[in-house]
Amino acid sequence: ALNLQTSFLTPPMAMSAYYLKGVLGKMIELVEIFRGIIPYLSIVIFIMFLMYQFPEIALWLPDYFFGKYIP
Fold first, then answer.
1. Hey, how many other C-beta atoms are within 10 angstroms of the C-beta on 64?
2. 22-29 contacts at long range (C-beta below 8 A, 24 or more positions apart)
3. Please, are residues 60 and 69 in contact by the beta-carbon 8 Å criterion?
4. Element containing residue 27 per DSSP (H, E)
5. pLDDT tens digit string along 16-44?
6. Domain regions of the chain by residue span
7. CA angle 30-32-38, nearest 5°?
């Protein structure tokens, strides 16, 4: 799900950025939208890196409910 959200923010897909450009029209440039996305995107990429390196971060809750969690 996190990878999918990242694809909505980054080119070449960037559906949310192009949607915002379509709504605002000439009030904003597409470059400004992408500049605004950068801080959020850097956080998302950092969290994805953490989850890839330490999958326990994302899997502790399902493991807990399925009885695999050992404190």
1. 12
2. none
3. yes
4. none
5. 888 889 999 999 998 999 899 889 889 98
6. 2-65
7. 105
